[in-house]
Structures are given as structure tokens and as C-alpha cells.
């Protein structure tokens, strides 16, 4: 049986190459998505500054199993407790605070960020003194060599450093150089006491250095017992997470992205492999009939087909391992370039995604073999010979049930998107797969649908296309299964591409316009040196022509409720300028009361949380701090901009830098131009301050909201590319199989032009039917998503996107049919018929 299967593969190269290509590419894409999933689940990062410490103690970065978005700092008293653990040689507390060195009043160019640390933590990187001495007093500092060179500093000179939003002058006591090829951010070292004071009295992490001969695992367990639930102990490649506060919050994003697209890819790959292999077996129906006629049993035929499939599956999976790893790296590179995850996160692709890719490919092939080869193996020899010439039987109860299963699930996800899901980051996880499932359901019923639609198109085609149209209609009527095989992958291509691209364009439009309407300010001041000191906003308010100014802080926190914490966006503002800066229509209370331990929220959220004006709202801020602010105002709910509003002075200390990074400015009527010039002059006097109009703030918010755009487009491009390859495989295989048919037509008097005209009409029929079905399938994603996002049945975005998708699909159809046919008809018709 193995010998027969291998000889069959040798002499059926065209159809088997198409099947192999579908398996190979499918396995590679699934392996790539699996690697992305494994990376998200592990979420590990190589340490940079703390790489000399095999054990790192840091604040717990989760609240009730949900990742925090800000750094959770720990009590400095833990340093002494960790140092007392047996086997610990030294416990070194570490802090990181923004510290921007100035030269001629401007931030030193070079590395994007610079941070201040205590000198004791220098050995964790490690840094060593190249010149001078360590800092001893609060007015001294050590600069790393690169920063000192750019600032023109040397031991004994002075430099201006922006810390806590204020310019302070320090004497350079020394220059430090780091060992190794790592490249952490630029560093300024203060005394340990000064660094902790700047960090608000708490520390970020503790680097643990063990005694010689002490095992890391055993010591880590001892340290965990010592700190209890007051901190988290990290070892190995997870130590880097201590340097990347908020990174764990991207874990959910990466996992959801990999899961949503991975599941879609699995379905598409299984469909692509099954349809390609099924088409190959269908084209071999006469061969199977002859084998049955000469005495082969159904069992022998099934064994032969399974053996062929096994050979192709194993070969395609083995060859797909390296390309699959490369695809995963490419997807991960897009995520890091987009800012979804830090570039310090380690990409992992172990044996699990490899195994998943192999299993999916083998199962898809085995399933296709079972269903497509069953009829050829079971049909009686005489009936098989008759069926091989017609090839019109397609309906079966299992096929119908499977189609109804996919259609029902697609419709179910669409309904859930429109009626159950709220507007949020997981909305796409139900909307996106809906069109995929519906496409597969339509594809399974494609022979019957195609036959019905050809009947509806008969009159216009006959009226417009003459003899070529009549020939095409006859072929479509007698070979509807063959035509459906060409329609199905194009439906998948159009449905997925249209649904996903318009879903993204709708998200872009809604996010941009809703934020624009919510921001009433004319200008925004932006700090690039760690934030604004409290007095800066008062100076802005005192500027002639300024009607109002408000500090602006963004973060994410949690509202504690009986069913579990609800994560929500937080905004910090100034009570003096919030009404002129943000569009908040107050329905109860007053925003002027946003001072101290207070909060304002929408009336809808107030009902959801069960609070009124005067009640306390139990919350946890982005760094895990528990608070119970008093509700002082309720405002009209905006479903596109849902957030809680707190005083900037209360929220900012619980963010990474501890200060507001933006100031929103509203100009008095008729004085916008004068205010711009005066603010520009003010910005020039505050180091690291940039002035722009409020549209830039909306643009940055849109960038944050749409940070997955490039990743979405990359993965969609892979899916659409795979579907396009399936289209080409299918059409080329079908066209090559029909060479004898074209030869007979030419021998009976048809010209090459007439044959090509017939194929053109067939291509148009395929394109029209696939476009209609693909558009219907895409509506299961577009319509519910648009209803939730913009209260409209129609998506946002240019009609050109849809026309490009349809036009590209038609080009694939004509390119994959006309080109092989034209090349095949260069040979004499007699030779073509004889070769068959």
C-alpha cells in the first residue's frame, strides 16, 4: 500500500503540490499564532538593570488576578527583612524616578529616557566608577559615562537635573561605566536616602545577592516565606518584569489577540486543507472508480488515501516548523514595534505550538480524507464509473448538519455582539469570528447555493454574453460542484477581509471622533521630563487670555463590587478648569468639589455601582492602592468615553512618574492666537515642555486605543493571503484538470477566443456569486459591531476598501483561470486530449 501511495504521489504532482502547499502554509501560520500565545502566557522578560541579582523582590503586580497598569511599590522595611534570610549576602533596595539632565536649559539628547537611582543599586547592573567618587550628600550625583559625555560633565562640575518637575543643580561626584552589552536607560545616581525621598519614601524592588554556593531556588523559597504576601519574588527570566511596571497588563491583550486570531486561523486552515484535499480526491473519482472496478476493496482505497495524506501531512509539518517560528517572530515584532508589549519581553515558541500546528494540519487532512474519500471507497464499481463523469452529487446529512452548526454559531456570535457585549476591548473577540464561521457554513452549502444563483443569473448572462455565456451557463449547471469549489475560498477571502478591515476602520473613526468631542480645550502642554510641578498650572492660569487650565492624568483602576473588581479608565483633572476642558454635563452635584479624596462618575456607572452623590466608592487605583473617595458629582453617560474622574493631585501620585504629564488649556473667546504665543513663551521657560493643539491629544489617545492596528492588519494579511493561495490552488488545479475539455471544444470547432470567453464568463459568475455570499458573511461582523460602536448599520470607512477587496478577488479568479488555460491551449488540441 505504501508503494502504491508513493507512486500515486509521483504521478499526480499537480494536485498533490496544491494540497501540500495548503498544509504547509496552514501549519506554519498555526505554529506562528501558537508561539504568540505561548509568549503571552509566559510573559517573561530578561532583566536589564537588575541582571546581577538572581532573585528580585518587587510589588505584587496584580489585583484580584487582574494585572495592574502602574508600579506597585513596596515598603523599604522589607530590605532589612530580606537581608536577614539565611543565605542572603546582600539585599539592595532599588528605585527609579525620572531624572532628566539639562544642557543649556534643554534635555540632553541621546537616549529617550533617563532615570535616577540610589547608588547602592549600581552594582546590580553592574556599574563601576570610572572616575571620581560615589555621592555622599543630597546635592551630589553620579552620571553614567554616555550621559556625562553628552552633557559635557566631569567630576567636580555641576549639572541641572529635572526631578519631580523641578530643576535642581547637582555636583557631579563621579562618572560610572557599566559592564556587559546590555543597554538600560540613561542613569543618574543619587545617594540612597535622596533617591528614596524623590520616590515618595517607598522602593520599587529589592535585588537579592546570595552567598557563594547557595542555590537560587531554595533561597527564593526562603525569601518568599519572609516577605509573605507583601511582595512578589521573581527568578529567572521573569526578573525583568520588575523593571517593566504595567507590562503584565499587556498579557491579556496578547493572549486574547493570539486566541481570537489563532482560533480563526485554525478554522480557516482546516477548511483550506479540507477543501483542497477534497477537490484533489474529487478530481481522482475516475481513478478510484477504476480501482474499484478491478477488484479493490473500500478498505484498501481508504488505506491508500490515508497513506497519501499521511505522507503529505508529515512532510508539510516538518518543513513548516522553521517558517512557523519565523511567522511567530514576525507577529511578535509587530506587537513590540506597535508598543503593545515591551521589546524586553522574551519570545517563546516551544514544542506546544509546534505540536498544535502539526495536530491541526493532520486532523484537517484526516477529516477531509474521511469525508471526501468515503464515497469513492464505498460506491459500487459501475456506479462509481458513472459518477466520475458527472460529479454532481454533493448533498449529505452530515454536511448539512455541519453547515447549520457553523451558520448558527456565526449568527449567535453576531447576536451576542449586538445585544450582549458592551463596548470594550473584548468586543472584537465575538464580532471577528462571526464572519469566519458564517463563511465556512456558506462554503459547505456552496454547491446548492451556486446552482440556485446560476439559475437566477441565467437570463442576464445569456442576454449580455452570447455563445460564450451559453457555454459557461451549461458548464455551471452540469458541474455545480466544481464551480462551488472555486466559489468557496473566495467567499472566505471576501468575507474575512471585508469584515475585519471595516471593523477596524469603524473602531478608528469612533475612537477619534468621540475623543475629539469630549475634549473642549484649545491647547495642551505636554511634559517630556517626568511631569509638571504643581506650580506650573497656576502659571498657565495666570497667562493673559487663558480662560481655564486643568492638569490631566490618565490611568486605569478598579471599582470594587460584590461580583468582583471592574476595571475602568481613570482621569485626573483640576477642579478649577475641568468644566471648560472636558465635555461633562453634570446631572447631580458639582465638579467644583473635585478636591482631595473625591470622585465624579457618569449616572449610568453610578447606578451600576449602586452609589449616589455623598456616598463613598470603594476602589483600587492603578498601583493597587485601596481608596474610598466620596462621590461629589454625576454627569451624563457617554458610552464611547467611559471613565471615572478624580482630582489630578490624588491620582498622579499613583502613576508611574507621580506627576501630571499634560495641562489642558482653554483660551478666552477671540484670543486663541495671542494665547498660543504666550503659552509657547511659557513652554520655552519650562524645560522639556511641548505645546500643541488639543487635536494632538486626541491623536495620541487614538494611537493608544488603536495600538493593535498594525498587528491586526498583519494577521489579517496572513489569513487573507492564505485564503488567496487557496483560491489560486483551487482554480489552477481545476483549470489544469479541464485541459482535455478545452481540447475537445477546439476539435469540435471552438476557437481559443471562444474558450477564453467562456472562461471569462465563468470567472464573472464565480466572482459575482462569491462577492454576494462574502458580503453577506461579512455583515455578521460589520453590522453588530457598527451598531454597538456607532449606532449605525453601516460601518465607517471608504467604499474603496470594499472595491479593492472585490477587485483583488476578481484578479485572482481571472489570473488563476485564464493564464493556465492560455498556456495550455498553446499545444495542439489533439495532443491535449491524448495527454488526458
From TrEMBL:
Q: Where does the chain cross the membrane?
A: 254-279, 310-332, 344-368, 400-421, 433-459, 480-503, 713-734, 755-779, 799-819
Major localization class: membrane
Q: Signal peptide position in this chain?
A: none
- State the family it belongs to: Belongs to the ABC-4 integral membrane protein family. LolC/E subfamily.
The protein's matches in Pfam families, at most eight in alphabetical order, are given as: FtsX
Q: What range(s) does the ABC3 transporter permease C-terminal domain occupy?
A: 260-381, 714-828
Record's bilayer topology term:
Multi-pass membrane protein
**What's the name of the protein?**
FtsX-like permease family protein
* Record's keyword terms, sorted: Cell membrane, Membrane, Transmembrane, Transmembrane helix
